[in-house]
Design brief:
Number of helices: 18
Strand content: under 5%
Oligomer: single chain
Distance between the termini: 12 Å
């Protein structure tokens, strides 16, 4: 195995490098979630006949671009991570941010709706690989015992995007059109590419990290259990997140102008939870996973119980955002530990799993709502999914103890495997 010497950087250089990685998370959060706010604009512009005949149908049709992006994440995360595992991580991140930039520009110039769907699929391909590799680099920058905080710092960009980036770019789209909004997102990715190029230190690649070695992760039960935690347990988060707007307007009976406030509150909770979750995961990853899914279930139950009361609902939204963000660093760090020889895949499939959770929570929540049980019933469904995530975490921890695996605590081998 190639031995990579420890980094020796000034604190200022480390901060700049971490900021560059977080900027990428901010850009990704913006491109992933801004489509939800601009969906009617895109439907009106790209599906004019359908929009004129049936607005709701056109909006639903336009929602394919969201699914296309998520599908791109699921496909691209393990593929790019495995193929690029041998490359120097700085060069790989530069390539990924450049790919984001070009694909987003192409989407902003799409001549037809079909091409827009295709380009949004391309935009999703680098998503998981970027976060996975960036998490590895951040852990290296932070040093031993602080990898969970490194993951949290990278993901903080995505959380902040929900507070600042998405509302701001949505306003740009509503004022100057959705194409200009995507142009602004492309500019964020271009800025990230420059920041990564200038701020990140060069580290040699690892020739021994072959595709076969990375793909060994899929032969481990613990890896599949971690994927299940993300896809099922975190699906509970999206069972509520998907329906924030109608919860505010139809259940709490507030004007539509309060929806952006709800999104901001939700995003603030994500920022706080993400930072707390990183420290908790570094302290005790087993406890972090159980607390994350357990407290998420409790927060969702509170939200379901007070959904008709405006002020308590907003407090519950902050709690759901915060507890949901505890999940990400914990599951990511667990994956790094149990995958061992496949760090790139471990970092990337984490995001494939969470996008599956996005789809699962939104789909099942939609089924419950469409069946006439109401939006609050969708939140109760989320409680069940979160508890299922906690059960999978308990199973994974129990099996690791029984096998005597090193996933329970950081050790020299586990630390070296993610450097």
């Amino acid at each position: 195995m190639t031995t990579v010497p420890p980094l020796q950087l000034s604190p200022r250089r480390v901060r700049l490098a971490l900021l560059a990685l977080a900027l990428g998370g901010f850009a990704i959060g913006s491109t992933e979630f801004v489509a939800m706010g601009l969906l009617p604009n895109i439907a009106h512009a790209m599906l004019p006949s359908e929009y004129a005949a049936n607005t709701a149908s056109a909006n639903a049709h336009a929602g394919i671009i969201i699914s296309a992006y998520a599908f791109g994440v699921v496909v691209g995360a393990p593929t790019i991570a495995a193929l690029g595992a041998r490359l120097p991580r700085k060069r790989l991140l530069m390539g990924l941010t450049l790919a984001f930039t070009l694909a987003t520009i192409a989407a902003s110039l799409a001549p037809t709706f079909g091409w827009l769907v295709f380009f949004r699929f391309l935009c999703g391909l680098p998503h998981g690989a970027y976060f996975g590799i960036a998490a590895l680099v951040a852990g290296d920058l932070m040093g031993p015992g602080k990898q969970g905080r490194g993951v949290a710092l990278v993901m903080s960009g995505l959380a902040v995007a929900n507070v600042v980036g998405v509302p701001g770019i949505t306003w740009i789209g509503e004022t100057w059109g959705w194409r200009v909004a995507y142009g602004a997102v492309a500019a964020l990715f271009a800025a990230t590419c420059v920041a990564v190029t200038l701020a990140l230190p060069y580290r040699p690649g690892r020739p021994e990290q072959t595709v076969r070695r990375e793909l060994k992760a899929f032969g481990k039960l613990q890896v599949w259990l971690a994927i299940g935690m993300g896809a099922i347990g975190f699906g509970g988060f999206f069972a509520m997140d998907t329906f924030i707007a109608p919860l505010v307007t139809d259940v709490a009976h507030l004007p539509a102008g309060f929806v952006p406030v709800a999104l901001t509150v939700f995003g603030l909770g994500m920022v706080v939870g993400n930072l707390v979750g990183g420290r908790l995961a570094d302290h005790n990853v087993r406890l972090a996973m159980l607390l994350a899914f357990g407290t998420l279930a409790v927060a969702l139950a509170i939200a379901a119980s007070v959904a008709h009361l405006p002020v308590p609902l907003y407090i519950a939204m902050f709690l759901v955002g915060g507890t949901g963000s505890l999940v990400t660093p914990a599951v990511q760090l667990w994956l790094f530990r149990v995958a061992h020889e496949s760090p790139a895949i471990a970092g990337a499939i984490h995001h494939s799993a969470f996008n599956l959770g996005n789809s699962l929570g939104a789909f099942l929540g939609g089924v419950v709502v469409a069946a006439g049980f109401g939006y609050v019933a969708g939140i109760w469904l989320g409680v069940g999914l979160s508890l299922a995530g906690a059960a999978i975490a308990l199973l994974a921890i129990g099996l690791a103890r029984g096998d005597g695996q090193s996933a329970l605590a950081p050790n020299a081998a586990a630390i070296e495997s993610v450097r």
